[in-house]
Amino acid sequence: MIEGERHFGPVWFIPGNRGGKYPYCHSLFLEGPGIIIDPASNFERLREIRNTEEVKAVWLSHWHEDHFTYLELFDDLPLFIAPEDQPPFTDVEVLLDWYGLEGDHRDYWRRAIVETFHYRPRPVAGFLQAGPSLLPGGLGVEIIPTPGHTPGHLAFHFPELGVVFMGDYDLTPFGPWYGDRHSSISQTLESLDKLASMEARVFLTGHERGVFAPPEPEDWQRYRRVIFTREEKLLEFLKTPHSLEDIVRAGIVYGKAREPKAFFEFGERAIMKKHLEALQGRGEVFVNEDGLFERRR
Ligand SMILES: [Zn+2]
Fold this sequence. Notes:
By secondary structure, this protein is of the alpha/beta class.
């Protein structure tokens, strides 16, 4: 056991380095079935588990790089993921496409994905399908599709234990990420509703605090409110017409400009684009004759 590690019966919570802040996440180990979930927490602890426990398979809650960094420790074991999130494992260019990365940012990210996150194309042994199942050793799990963050994001519910792992619906102060090409704000909200309505005594997440026993209503509300606050700030900003670049510089998501630009500028643009799409879809924002985004009054 390492500091912060918690065992809920056969479900082990393995805390990530730096409190599970990006580029790390928290992992789970399912003792009995021998399944590692999201191997990007702590290299030494994961290696120790690999050497001392019977690890038989790896599951990923979704395709993001901060959940697969130490997958190399389990290269010889079968990998499972939702079918919707499998394409990025075929080729790094597909992964970069899924983030919608272009130009210099794409080059920065290609290097980071391969060097920092140890990406290599990986065949998938099988797909994780929605619904309840009994794992080897008798542990029951219910696989719960929770799209929005990514199209194939999964939560894992262990009903006999009253434990849910929510992956990147992580209740952090930053709020939800929904900036990928296939992310969705409305699906994020639906998935949060689904998770918040679950009966469990322990809710585990992929980042930061990680263990909620269970979350307070305020924890859920604060997290959801981040989405609406971003939208309100954008609408306020668009009382005067602005280009996408102006919007990115306004720093609604990440605050004032920070380095590396390829990280923060990309994230800012990605999330703002999702809000612009949603607001244009609802007719609240339009592109004026100068090609600038403007709030409809
Ligand atoms: Zn993620």
